[in-house]
């Protein structure tokens, strides 16, 4: 089986006519975990939403290839079915649909008719993943994210990640609002996914998450593009010194775009 890959070339994205991403380039392969860091308002969440096809974000130019196919020509559901996953910064609440029903339907939507996952196999897998994530079994029957705390929503996003087993995942500030115990559990779930058939992009403000999920590559994003890349040590320097040294090194003036 060919390892998955996501290749973004010269991507430009606008919101209501205002350009947010500018000549953005990135390539992620199976077996790799990448982290994107950067100041507020540099376009990190815009990247995540644009990749999943949010209608608010207009692709003005550029190319995104996902496992040999043109991602930008796919509808949102087609991107998910092809194996692209987004853990959102602010997961939605959906009343009337239980976690279990949602997950089983999502799994079956990616399978051929007649090859749906059996109920017993689904329950065994769900129990296994919930145990790893230290989630109470009652979560399976609760409505999707309804009444969940911020930490419970983030843990639930990782449960979805592990159940759906995507090829490439984009995790948008999955560490936001987590205490140290929840952070360790969420990291354990992501680390359990590591392998040649899985690639991941983590969008984060803080190096602390990367203490538990060691990235293969760290990228700094400013003014809608990646301006510097390195290994895990780059995140450590950013935590210690902030972003001013990069701005000075590259002659970048302060300029916010949008989220």
Task: Explain what this protein looks like in three dimensions.
- There is one protein chain.
- This protein has helices at residues 44-52, 76-82, 99-109, 119-132, 150-164, 180-193, 232-241, 244-250; strands at residues 5-15, 18-29, 33-37, 58-66, 69-70, 84-87, 94-98, 143-144, 168-172, 199-203, 217-222, 225-230.
- The strands form three sheets. Strands 6-9-10-3-11-12 form a six-stranded mixed β-sheet, sandwiched between helices.
- The longest helix is centred in the middle third of the chain and has 15 residues, at 150-164.
- The chain has 259 residues and is α/β, with parallel strands linked by helices.
- The protein has a domain at 5-94 and 167-250: P-loop containing nucleotide triphosphate hydrolases (Rossmann fold, 3-Layer(aba) Sandwich), CATH 3.40.50.300.
- The chain is globular, with a radius of gyration of 18 Å.
Shape: globular
List segments where confidence is low: pLDDT < 50 over at least 5 consecutive residues: none
Level-2 CATH architecture of one domain: 3-Layer(aba) Sandwich
State the major sheet: 6 strands, mixed
Would you identify the CATH H-level superfamily of one domain?
Answer: P-loop containing nucleotide triphosphate hydrolases
Structural class computed from helices and strand pairing: alpha/beta
- Counted by DSSP, the helix tally is 8
Record field, number of beta strands: 12
Portion in beta strands:
25-35%
Q: Find the CATH topology of one domain.
A: Rossmann fold
Summary tags:
12 strands, 259 residues
């Amino acid at each position: 089986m060919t390892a998955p890959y996501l290749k973004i070339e010269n991507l430009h994205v606008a919101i209501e006519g205002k350009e947010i991403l500018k000549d953005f380039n990135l390539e992620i392969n199976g077996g790799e975990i990448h982290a994107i860091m950067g100041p507020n308002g540099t376009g990190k969440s815009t990247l995540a939403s644009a990749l999943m096809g949010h209608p608010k974000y207009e692709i003005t130019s550029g190319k995104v290839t996902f496992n040999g196919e043109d991602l930008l020509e796919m509808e949102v559901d087609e991107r998910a079915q092809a194996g692209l996953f987004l853990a959102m910064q602010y997961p939605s609440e959906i009343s009337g649909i239980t976690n279990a029903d949602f997950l089983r339907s999502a799994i079956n939507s990616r399978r051929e008719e007649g090859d749906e996952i059996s109920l017993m196999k689904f329950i065994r897998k769900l129990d296994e993943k919930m145990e790893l994530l230290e989630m109470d079994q009652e979560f399976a029957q609760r409505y999707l994210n309804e009444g969940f705390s911020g930490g419970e929503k983030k843990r639930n996003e990782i449960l979805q990640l592990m159940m759906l087993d995507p090829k490439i995942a984009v995790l948008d500030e999955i560490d936001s609002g987590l205490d140290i115990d929840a952070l360790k559990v969420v990291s354990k779930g992501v680390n359990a996914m590591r392998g040649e058939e899985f690639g991941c992009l983590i969008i984060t403000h803080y190096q602390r998450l990367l203490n538990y999920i060691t990235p293969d590559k760290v990228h700094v994003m400013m003014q809608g593009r990646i301006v510097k890349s390195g290994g895990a040590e780059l995140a450590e320097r950013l935590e210690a010194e902030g972003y001013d040294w990069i701005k000075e090194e590259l002659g970048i003036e302060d300029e916010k775009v949008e989220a």
